[in-house]
Write a structure and sequence with these properties.
heterodimer; A: alpha/beta; 4-stranded mixed sheet; B: alpha+beta; PIN_dom (chain A); PIN-like_dom_sf (chain A); Aminotransferase (chain A)
C-alpha cells in the first residue's frame, strides 16, 4: 500500500473549508483512504502543533471565544489522528533538516516521510518541498488519484524483483506501535527479562490457550530447552521427521539422543502418524512432530499413540504454524509442549531471533524457565544444567507491536493461498478472471506446478510457505528468477541424507520425504502480497514451459 | 481477597508479599479512570488493494459537526498567507 503524507495546507483547506465543495470531498476521501484501503495516510508530528496554532488563530481572528476555539481544534486533531498515523520526527533527523534549503518544518516532514517503506507521496497545495536525495514524490490532492492507480509495473519500466517475504509493508502498518514499544524499552532500560517479556508471555499464553508461555532466544533454543526439561539425553530416542529445518534434529543429537526418522504424508509433508508406532522402542522418550508449511501435523493421532505407549511426551515444532489451529485449538497448545520461532520471516516474527515454549504442565514450565537462565532457580543457585536462552526485551517489544495485526495477517495469508489455488486452477483451465467466481474450488491445478492439497478440514494453516510440487525444479526456479520472482526450497535434502546425520538412518527408508525433497518449491508468500503480483507469479509459472 | 498493588510499565507489584498456590490465574483490577487515556483501538487495516478515490461525506460532516458555529466557507489562501498567520500565532503565544 502506498503512503500519503499530508501537508498542513491540505488539512487546513479541509478544516477551514477554503476550497470548493468537490475539492473538500476529495481531500476528505484521501484522508479516509486508509479505511477504504486506498493508501496509508500520515501526518508528520512537527505539523500537528502548527495545525493547532493556525486553526485557532483563524477562529480567534473571526471573533470566536478562545477557549471554545481551543476545544474544537483539539477535537479536530483527535478526529484527524483517528484517520492518519502520526509520523515521527526523530532527533537524528534534525541536523540534516537544518541544512536543507527549505524551512525547517518542511525539511522535518521530508526527513520523516523518507523513513517510510515503499512509494510515498507528500500531498500538498504548495509544491515547494525539497525531496532531493529521497524517493519521495509530491502531488496536489487532485493529482493523487492517478498516482495511486498506477500499478507498480507502470511506475517502473523493468519489473522490480518481488520479495519472497515482505515485512516492510507490515512495518508501515504498525510503525507507531513499533516506535512506541522500542522507545518504551529504551526508556526503562530493562533489556533482559524486562516487562515486555512478561507481557508478551501472558498475551501469547492467552492466544494459544496454553497455561504457560516461556519466551526464549530462538526457535532452536525452544526445542533444546524443551528436550532438556524432559531430561532427554544419551541413549534416548526421539521420534521425528526427516523433512524439516535442521534445528529440529540438531538439538536431539546435541543432547546425545538419537533421532528416529519416520516418513511423511505426501499431501501435508508432515510426519505420517500411521508409521510412528512401528518405530517406537523401549528407548523412545518423546515424539517431536513438525507442523510444516503452517499446517499442524495430525496431533490427535500422535497424542493418542503417545498416550498408548506410557504417556510419552509430545513436542510440537510449531515454528511455521504459530497461529494455525487443529480441531479448534491453536498450534503450540496441542501437546505436552509446543515450540515456536519468531525468526523475522515467520508468520509472527521479530526483528532478530526469538522463540517461545508453550505448555500447561507447571513442572515443565518451571524447568524451562530455569534452563533458559543457566539452570538458575534463584540468584546464583544453579539447580540444573541450563543455557543462556532468554529472549531479549527489545525483541519481545517488537512482537508485542505485531500482535494486534496478527489475526488480520493470518486471514490475509489464507486469502493469498486461496488466490494462488484459484489462479493455478484458472491457468490450467483457461478460465478468465471474470469467471473466477464460478470456479469450483477443487479444480485440478496446473500440470506445471501442483500445489499441496488445501489443509485438511479439521485444521487451518497460516501458510508460512505456499508450496508446490514441480518437475524440473532447478530450471523452473531459474526461469522465475529471471523474471524477478524469488522461490525457495523447503527442504532440498531430507535430514537423514545430510552428511552430519545420514549415519543415523538408512537413506532410503523415508521414500516420501525423498520424493518431496526433489519436487517442492515455495512461492512468495506474505500477508501483503497483492493480487497483481500473484497474477504475475502464476502467469510466469505457466509461461515457463517447464 | 482484595489487595493493593502498583502498576508500573506493564508490571503489577503487590504492596505486601503474597505466596500463590498457582503461577497463573485470572484477577479483576480496578483501574482509576484518570489513569486510562483511551481504549486501545486495533490498527486500521487495508480493505482492498485496488480501491478507488471516492467521496467521503462522512469525514466532512464530522468536521462540520465538530466546528459547529465556526464552520463556514472561507476564501482560499496561499502558503505564504498561512506562514504569516503562523508567525503571528507563534509570536502571540510567546509574547513577542
Amino acid at each position: 500500500m502506498k503512503n500519503l503524507v499530508f501537508d498542513i495546507n491540505v488539512i487546513l483547506d479541509l478544516w477551514l473549508e477554503r476550497q470548493p465543495e468537490d475539492q473538500l470531498r476529495l481531500i476528505a476521501s484521501l484522508i479516509d483512504g486508509q479505511r477504504s484501503g486506498l493508501a496509508r495516510g500520515w501526518i508528520a508530528s512537527p505539523s500537528l502543533h502548527v495545525l493547532e496554532y493556525l486553526a485557532r488563530a483563524q477562529f480567534k481572528r473571526e471573533g470566536a471565544d478562545p477557549e471554545e476555539a481551543k476545544d474544537r481544534v483539539k477535537r479536530l486533531l483527535a478526529n484527524l489522528l483517528q484517520r492518519l498515523n502520526p509520523l515521527s520526527s526523530f532527533g537524528f533527523h534534525q541536523d540534516a533538516a537544518l541544512l536543507a534549503q527549505t524551512d525547517l518544518e518542511d525539511a522535518q516532514i521530508v526527513a520523516a516521510a523518507a523513513e517510510l517503506q515503499g512509494p510515498t507521496a507528500i500531498v500538498t497545495n504548495d509544491k515547494r518541498f525539497d525531496t532531493t536525495g529521497t524517493a519521495l514524490v509530491q502531488f496536489r490532492p487532485a493529482e493523487v488519484s492517478a498516482w495511486l492507480k498506477q500499478l507498480p509495473a507502470e511506475q517502473l519500466p523493468n519489473e522490480q524483483p518481488l520479495a519472497f517475504v515482505d515485512i516492510k509493508t507490515q512495518q508501515n502498518a504498525i510503525r507507531p506501535a513499533l516506535e512506541q514499544q522500542i522507545h518504551r524499552v529504551l526508556h526503562h532500560g530493562q533489556y533482559i527479562l524486562g516487562p515486555e517479556v512478561t507481557e508478551l508471555e501472558q498475551q501469547l499464553a492467552t492466544f494459544t490457550g496454553a497455561q504457560h508461555c516461556i519466551s526464549v532466544a530462538s526457535g532452536t533454543e525452544a526445542l533444546l530447552i524443551s528436550l532438556m526439561a524432559l531430561d532427554i539425553g544419551p541413549g534416548d530416542e526421539v521420534i521425528t521427521t526427516p523433512f524439516t529445518f535442521v534445528a529440529t534434529v540438531e538439538v536431539i543429537v546435541l543432547l546425545g539422543a538419537t533421532p528416529i526418522f519416520v516418513d511423511i504424508e505426501p499431501d501435508t509433508a508432515n510426519i505420517d502418524a500411521s508409521l510412528i508406532e512401528a518405530k517406537l522402542s523401549e528407548h523412545t522418550k518423546a515424539i517431536l512432530p513438525v507442523s510444516l508449511y503452517g499446517q499442524p501435523a495430525d496431533m490427535g493421532a500422535i497424542n493418542a499413540i503417545a498416550a498408548r505407549h506410557g504417556h510419552l511426551p509430545v513436542i510440537e515444532d510449531a515454528a511455521q504454524s504459530f497461529g494455525a489451529s487443529y480441531q479448534g485449538k491453536r498450534s503450540g497448545s496441542l501437546s505436552t509442549i509446543g515450540c515456536t520461532s519468531f525468526f523475522p520471516s515467520k508468520p509472527l516474527g521479530c526483528y532478530g531471533d526469538g522463540g517461545a515454549i508453550f505448555t500447561s504442565d507447571d513442572r515443565l514450565a518451571q524447568a524451562c524457565r530455569e534452563i533458559r537462565v543457566h539452570g538458575q532457580s534463584a540468584r546464583y543457585v544453579h539447580s540444573r544444567i541450563g543455557v543462556g536462552g532468554r529472549m531479549d526485551t527489545l525483541q519481545a517489544a517488537i512482537v508485542l507491536a505485531k500482535l494486534p495485526r496478527f489475526e488480520h495477517e493470518i486471514t490475509q495469508r489464507q486469502a493469498v493461498a486461496r488466490q494462488y489455488h484459484d489462479l493455478l486452477a484458472m491457468e490450467e483451465q483457461g478460465i478468465t478472471q471474470k469467471q473466477k467466481q464460478d470456479i469450483v474450488r477443487a479444480l485440478p491445478c496446473s500440470s506445471v506446478a501442483k500445489p499441496l492439497p488445501w489443509p485438511k478440514p479439521d485444521r487451518t494453516s497460516v501458510f508460512a510457505q505456499y508450496t508446490l510440487r514441480v518437475q524440473d525444479r532447478d530450471r523452473l526456479q531459474t526461469k522465475l528468477k529471471e523474471q524477478g520472482i524469488p522461490t525457495a526450497v523447503h527442504y532440498p535434502v531430507p535430514l537423514n541424507e545430510q552428511p552430519a546425520y545420514r549415519h543415523l538412518c538408512c537413506p532410503d527408508c523415508t521414500p516420501v520425504a525423498q520424493q518431496l525433497a526433489r519436487e517442492v518449491m515455495s512461492l512468495p508468500m506474505h500477508a501483503d502480497l497483492s493480487a497483481v503480483d500473484q497474477q504475475r507469479i502464476v502467469t510466469a509459472l505457466k509461461a515457463s514451459g517447464v | 481477597m482484595q489487595v493493593e498493588a502498583l502498576y508500573d510499565h506493564g508490571q503489577l507489584t503487590f504492596n505486601r508479599p503474597i505466596r500463590f498456590a498457582t503461577a497463573r490465574f485470572p484477577v479483576i483490577l480496578e483501574i482509576p479512570d484518570q489513569a486510562v487515556l483511551a481504549e486501545p483501538q486495533p490498527p486500521a487495516q487495508p480493505a482492498a488493494a485496488d480501491a478507488a478515490v471516492t467521496d467521503s461525506p462522512d469525514l466532512l460532516a464530522e468536521i462540520r459537526h465538530i466546528l459547529g458555529p465556526l464552520s463556514k466557507r472561507r476564501p482560499s489562501v496561499n502558503s505564504a498567507e498561512d506562514k504569516t498567520a503562523l508567525t503571528q500565532a507563534l509570536a502571540e503565544k510567546h509574547g513577542l
